[in-house]
C-alpha cells in the first residue's frame, strides 16, 4: 500500500523527474512503482519533513 503523501505533484514524465530528484540528492522513500490505478509514483523527503 502506498504511504499517504502531504503533497502530490503530477508530472509529464515520472522517470525523468525521479532521476533528476535522485541526482539532486533527494531521499527517495518509495518507488518508483506503477500503482494499481495505473499511475507511476515515487515519494521523497525534504528538509521540511517533520
Explained architecture:
This protein has 50 residues and is an alpha+beta fold. It is built from one helix and two strands, in the order αββ. It has a two-stranded antiparallel ribbon. The mean pLDDT is 78.
Radius of gyration (CA) equals 11 Å
Proportion in β-strands: 25-35%
**What series of H and E elements makes up the topology?**
HEE
Shape: globular
Number of DSSP strand runs: 2
What gap, in angstroms, lies between the N and C termini? 21 Å
Helix content: 10-25%
How many individual helices? Answer: 1
* Average pLDDT for all residues: 78
Which segments are poorly predicted (pLDDT under 50) over 5 or more consecutive residues?
none
Structural class from helices and strands?
A: alpha+beta
Amino acid at each position: 500500500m502506498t504511504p499517504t503523501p502531504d503533497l502530490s505533484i503530477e508530472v509529464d514524465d515520472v522517470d525523468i523527474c525521479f532521476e533528476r530528484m535522485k541526482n539532486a540528492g533527494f531521499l527517495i522513500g518509495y518507488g518508483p512503482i506503477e500503482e494499481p490505478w495505473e499511475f507511476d509514483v515515487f515519494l521523497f523527503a525534504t528538509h521540511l519533513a517533520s
